[in-house]
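In response to the reviewer comment on reproducibility (Comment 2.3), we provide here a single inverse folding case reported in full, input and output, so that an independent group could reproduce the run without further information from us. The C-alpha coordinates appear first.
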Protein backbone atom coordinates (compact mmCIF):
# COMPACT_ATOMS: atom_id res chain seq x y z
CA UNK A 1 0.00 0.00 0.00
CA UNK A 2 1.81 3.10 -1.21
CA UNK A 3 -0.92 5.72 -1.04
CA UNK A 4 -3.31 6.23 1.87
CA UNK A 5 -5.81 9.06 1.89
CA UNK A 6 -3.77 11.66 0.06
CA UNK A 7 -0.40 11.22 1.79
CA UNK A 8 1.88 8.37 0.88
CA UNK A 9 3.77 6.19 3.30
CA UNK A 10 6.95 7.24 1.51
CA UNK A 11 6.19 10.93 2.19
CA UNK A 12 5.64 10.27 5.90
CA UNK A 13 8.82 8.19 6.19
CA UNK A 14 10.86 10.74 4.24
CA UNK A 15 9.62 13.54 6.46
CA UNK A 16 10.27 11.50 9.60
CA UNK A 17 13.80 10.69 8.45
CA UNK A 18 14.45 14.32 7.66
CA UNK A 19 13.14 15.36 11.07
CA UNK A 20 16.12 13.65 12.66
CA UNK A 21 18.37 16.46 11.46
CA UNK A 22 15.75 19.21 11.39
CA UNK A 23 13.11 20.44 13.77
CA UNK A 24 10.01 18.29 14.08
CA UNK A 25 7.92 21.43 13.59
CA UNK A 26 9.45 21.77 10.14
CA UNK A 27 8.50 18.19 9.32
CA UNK A 28 4.91 18.84 10.36
CA UNK A 29 4.88 22.00 8.23
CA UNK A 30 6.05 20.00 5.21
CA UNK A 31 3.16 17.58 5.67
CA UNK A 32 0.70 20.46 5.90
CA UNK A 33 2.14 22.16 2.80
CA UNK A 34 2.40 18.99 0.71
CA UNK A 35 -1.21 18.00 1.40
CA UNK A 36 -3.88 20.00 -0.43
CA UNK A 37 -6.62 21.42 1.82
CA UNK A 38 -9.26 19.14 0.33
CA UNK A 39 -7.13 16.00 0.66
CA UNK A 40 -7.88 13.52 3.42
CA UNK A 41 -5.73 13.23 6.52
CA UNK A 42 -3.10 10.54 7.11
CA UNK A 43 -4.32 7.34 8.75
CA UNK A 44 -3.43 6.65 12.37
CA UNK A 45 -1.61 3.50 11.30
CA UNK A 46 0.69 5.36 8.88
CA UNK A 47 1.79 7.89 11.52
CA UNK A 48 2.00 5.20 14.24
CA UNK A 49 -0.60 6.89 16.44
CA UNK A 50 -0.92 5.56 19.99
CA UNK A 51 -3.39 6.47 22.77
CA UNK A 52 -0.59 7.12 25.26
CA UNK A 53 2.07 9.86 25.34
CA UNK A 54 5.69 9.28 24.37
CA UNK A 55 7.59 10.66 27.32
CA UNK A 56 6.80 14.37 27.62
CA UNK A 57 5.22 14.44 24.14
CA UNK A 58 1.43 14.21 23.86
CA UNK A 59 -1.18 15.41 21.39
CA UNK A 60 -2.41 18.17 23.69
CA UNK A 61 1.03 19.84 23.48
CA UNK A 62 1.24 19.44 19.67
CA UNK A 63 0.55 22.26 17.19
CA UNK A 64 -1.53 19.86 15.07
CA UNK A 65 -3.99 18.97 17.89
CA UNK A 66 -7.52 20.39 17.70
CA UNK A 67 -9.34 20.09 21.04
CA UNK A 68 -11.16 18.16 22.19
CA UNK A 69 -10.25 15.10 20.09
CA UNK A 70 -9.00 15.71 16.54
CA UNK A 71 -5.86 16.57 14.60
CA UNK A 72 -5.09 18.72 11.57
CA UNK A 73 -3.07 15.94 9.92
CA UNK A 74 -4.27 12.62 11.42
CA UNK A 75 -7.61 10.99 10.64
CA UNK A 76 -10.06 9.84 13.30
CA UNK A 77 -10.47 10.50 16.99
CA UNK A 78 -7.26 11.58 18.72
CA UNK A 79 -6.79 11.44 22.49
CA UNK A 80 -5.26 14.47 24.21
CA UNK A 81 -2.80 12.08 25.88
CA UNK A 82 -2.01 10.30 22.57
CA UNK A 83 1.10 10.61 20.37
CA UNK A 84 2.19 10.02 16.76
CA UNK A 85 5.29 10.54 14.65
CA UNK A 86 4.16 13.93 13.28
CA UNK A 87 4.24 15.41 16.79
CA UNK A 88 5.41 19.04 16.77
CA UNK A 89 5.60 20.86 20.12
CA UNK A 90 3.60 24.06 20.47
CA UNK A 91 5.82 27.11 20.84
CA UNK A 92 6.23 28.31 24.41
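Designed residues, in position order:
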Amino acid sequence: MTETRGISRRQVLTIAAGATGASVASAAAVIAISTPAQAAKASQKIVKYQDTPKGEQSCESCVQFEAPSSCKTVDGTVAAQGWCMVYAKKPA
